[in-house]
Amino acid sequence: MGKSSILNALDERLQITTGGLHAKRGTGRHTTSSSTLHDLGGGTFIIDTPGIREFGLWSLDRDTLRDYFPELEETAGLCRFNDCTHLHEPGCEVKARVAAGEIHPARYDAYVRLSEEIAD
Ligand SMILES: [Zn+2]
User: Fold this and answer.
1) What homologous superfamily does CATH list for 62-117?
2) Beta-carbon count within 10 A of 86 CB
3) Taking the model in full, what pTM does it have?
4) Which residues surround ligand 1, an ion (CB under 5 A)?
5) How confident is the model over 61-78, as pLDDT tens digits?
6) Is 4 helix (H, G, I), strand (E, B) or coil?
């Protein structure tokens, strides 16, 4: 069972496309190709994002990662340092906006998590 199937089981309203079993080859198909944020209501959100392995195929690096978080990139120009990674620098406007609720904390958490994966 893929993660999309699991998410759909959690909430049938999600209707996320699932690869299911390929009729001929009998192998699961990975169909999650873009990051999406699902609002389940009651303050619960789920981010469905491509797996790390898939990012690897795309040669994701720190600069490319920023392309997937346009709301962070829009804000980056206001950070104190022009090479701010928004992880630990002082004067980071992104972190300030997360704290102020202007950038969704789940999105920022996903950015931090992926940044840490890339750094390893
Ligand atoms: Zn920053």
Assistant:
1) Probable gtpase engc; domain 3 (1.10.40.50)
2) 23
3) 0.52
4) 79, 84, 86, 92, 94
5) 777 788 888 889 899 999
6) helix
